[in-house]
Amino acid sequence: MDFIQNLIKKLFPHNIITHHINDLTNEPSDQNNITNDICISIEKENKSRQFCRLTIEQLITLFEHCPVSDRTLYEVISLSKPVKTYNDYEYFIDKNLDIENHYIGPISSLKIFYYFLNIPNDTIDTIEIYTQKILKQFLILEASTNEKISYHFIHSKPSVLFENVSTLGIFLKAIIHFLLFSIIQHKCTMFNINSPPESCTISNLIQILAPYVGILRKHCTSCTISIPYVSIADISYLLVRSAADKWTTAIDVNVYSKNQQFRLFNSVKYGKNNPLIPSTTFPFDSSLQYSFSDILKKSLITLIENHQIPKIYFKNKNFILHFPLYSNSNSTTTIPQNLLNIKLINDHIEHSYFLNLDINTNTNQNSTSSLHLNKSNKLDLSIPDVQIFITFVQNIITSDPSHQGYIHSCIRGTYNKSLLFFNIAGHYKYCPKKKDHHQHNNVAIIINSKAYTYSIRCKDPECNNTILSWKKIK
Questions:
Q1: Does the pTM of the predicted model rise above 0.85?
Q2: For the chain: N or C, fewer Cβ within 10 A?
Q3: Record's InterPro entries (predicted)?
């Protein structure tokens, strides 16, 4: 057993360590919210995970006794809990050599999030004061290297919460869609293209903008939309080239699924040596001093220290803000949406085709079903190793907003027990041989749990139902 598992058993002998996340997340959500327990996952050598539930006091103790190099810890973000806003911002430097200033994209993203999560303020601030206000709310953790720019943005002193991670994911996708659409709609002497159709997805908008990214960054520094201190040029820095040399967004929109695992503060990926530490470029609330345990608490997505903070819900294709009436009551009241700048997003959703093409989620506050999982009841989570690879498969089949798929069923190989066949339904029908999606025939994603590789089997007759090339799971 690895060092950290031994340490947990030594420090907290009554705590359960399990391979199955459901063993920890099937408890009543009300009980979890009251205790504020933190569900963590432990990354192991073969990239598999083990899971454990700790109190915040136990988690702090674990950090005190565990060296950073062994701290391969992630917070499991349950769909049943309210959450702080968080996101993962990253890109590879060698694929984006034209970006000379690596701080433009991160600070622009923070300004955008601050704008949509706070009450409008007509006070004219300097950019310095405005930035200070932002950094009083947002904790920025950094794990950048010479190869990769990597930040975690966490709304550590939240002005508003989200009912669950699903609603947060929809909200951030809607913001990105709004931003990209706004860039295309703006006209200036150097940029003037036809407005896209209402049916454009985020992927469509990225493809439209890709040829113009250099022009936007260089010539649209004075072109603006409603967000203070953010130009069209600044927003264009959110578009980056991926490791596969394809245009995408630096903000990862695929980290909002059920039981998402988000790396903990001052923890490392297995075999790596770049822990997530507070950014010195974007210091958190620099007017105050915080202890190590304070920063750890502030960095936790599901640790809500003040339950009187208003929450954003998603109902009837609109974001709605609710505020608790009394501290000893479960009652809530709706606050006019113009108290936040979410009216812009609601208006955008109403007049675009965004929801029909970019969203495939379950936002019922009391639901424990996955965003893309359990569209049928044929997924047997009791099959060993299935739970470990669900998130990996989901990330593949939901990476393209215009071709969203879901896991219909999973079976183990009859002769080779190391093989897991995830049968995919929905609109994900990608064929690596064709390098495009088929119209009708589905695919299966095959996992070799022993070799830690995966492949896609295309069920289209023209592909002869063959298994295509195997790739390493990273």
A1: no
A2: C
A3: PRIMPOL
